Amino acid sequence: MDITGASGSELIWEKYKEAEKRLKELENSIEWFKVCFDTAYEGITIVDERGYIRMMNDAYCRFISVRKEDVVGRYVEEVIENTRLPVVLQTGIPERNQAHRLLGQDMVVHRIPIWKDNKVIGAVGMLIFEGVSELYKIFERMQILHEKIGDNRIVFESPKPKSNKVTFDQIIGESESIAEAKKIARRAAQTSATILLTGESGVGKELFAKAIHYLSPFQNGPLVSVNCASIPENLLESELFGYEEGAFTGSRKDGKPGKFELANKGTLFLDEIGDMPLHMQAKILRVLQEREVERVGGTKSIPVDFRLVAATHRSLEEMVREGTFRKDLYYRLNVIPIHIPPLAQRRTDIPLLIAAQLQAISQKNNMPAKDIDKEAMSLLMNYDWPGNIRELVNTVERLVTLSEDDRIRTSDLPEVFFGKGAWRGEQEPSASWKQPVSVKRGQQDEKKRILEVLQEMNGNKSKTAKKLGISRATLYNKLNKYQLG
Ligand SMILES: Nc1ncnc2c1ncn2[C@@H]1O[C@H](COP(=O)(O)OP(=O)(O)OP(=O)(O)O)[C@@H](O)[C@H]1O
């Protein structure tokens, strides 16, 4: 008997009933999953890490005229013509909205790698439209709809030259934390509330500020950016407030409006607000409270109306505690705080960002996009990215420029990428890029790194391969290549 008075067999019976109930629930949700999978209009196929089909839904089977039981367990290339799922398994890079020719029809497809514990364990292929013609039909229907309501914005014509407008779609990332930040920013953008963006350098604070402006009621006004850290302290006041004629020696004859005035009816982006000297903080607070400015050397007040977005990589709370940031200004700024997490805390976004960057570089240079092999991608996924997305953007650009063939490989990477977060805080980001990295140098780095890890692991090849983020087979190939056998 236990303290509730139940005997041992009663307890076992209860446990059994509980387990049975859970099993039923599980069966029920699997049933639901199967129904959804097979009811979807889109064709879906799932392959394991070797490229063998594990699942294919009814829509896909119907489209390529096969029976499920005949294709599950077969290598995907034997079943789907022109498939690039094996490539996606190799690179770990998602390929979204790609054209794919299947049974003589142009299709739009997504190919999505499944990452788990920094390894690609499979991939999902989705057929989005039954032929690209479906896409045109949607456009036609939208055009008719917009003509009816007197809105002729959607028309078939060649794409217009790109504007500098930034939209939230351009903020790449699907991790939970970035999706949450985007959700809050989208909502806040549509109000006039002050927004405080925080996050390490290079996480995308400025990109967020731009996307907020172009979605806000202030989008038709100017977007004026001020980097408070880069303006010398003695010029900060005249930059922000402007000055009147003859305010100081060397000033312009007819005076100059400041950034507050220039941002009228638009958005003022005060970047690195944590670097603002204390005496200027007081003056800024006054403008925010009174909504008017007085130019340096002037006497009249000029009304200003703008939305403020501020950003900082510092902790303003800590600065308030230390007495280096005014508490009242902090409360004025912190109306809608949005934190953008560092890239190392949202590693699932790394392949997406790399894919987008490879695409952007190829478009810019009008050449086919390079890809990355799985081992190199795994090293990039493991790296800490202290310079965040700015560092990633620069890294991909350098890799594309310096790698000699169409695929970026581990031998193209400098040594900072070998070993997780090896240098964080100890060395300048990407210091080893300073020398041009030839393939030869990359190979020397790789050989050195393999030897180091082999020694560390007392010659154990499995452990060495694991630590290097490569397969045992690849390690053996490399040992042969560098004659380390
Ligand atoms: N989610 C993202 N998707 C695509 N590009 C991004 C993303 N986030 C940042 N970038 C790019 O990374 C670079 C750095 O971003 P940004 O200047 O906005 O960072 P920041 O946080 O303002 O940095 P700092 O604090 O150093 O000024 C820019 O080229 C930007 O376009």
From TrEMBL:
Domain (PAS) ranges: 29-74
Nucleotide-binding recorded as keyword: yes
Pfam families associated with the record: AAA_lid_14 (PF25601), HTH_8 (PF02954), Sigma54_activat (PF00158)
GO biological process per UniProt: regulation of DNA-templated transcription
A single GO molecular function term of this UniProt record: ATP binding
Gene3D superfamilies: 1.10.8.60, Homeodomain-like (1.10.10.60), P-loop containing nucleotide triphosphate hydrolases (3.40.50.300), PAS domain (3.30.450.20)
The Sigma-54 factor interaction domain, residue ranges: 171-401
Record has Nucleotide-binding as a keyword: yes
Entry-linked InterPro entries: AAA+_ATPase, AAA_lid_NorR, Homeodomain-like_sf, HTH_Fis, P-loop_NTPase, PAS, PAS-like_dom_sf, Sigma_54_int
PROSITE patterns: PAS, SIGMA54_INTERACT_1, SIGMA54_INTERACT_2, SIGMA54_INTERACT_3, SIGMA54_INTERACT_4
Keywords from the named record: ATP-binding, DNA-binding, Nucleotide-binding, Transcription, Transcription regulation
Protein name, as recorded: Sigma-54-dependent Fis family transcriptional regulator
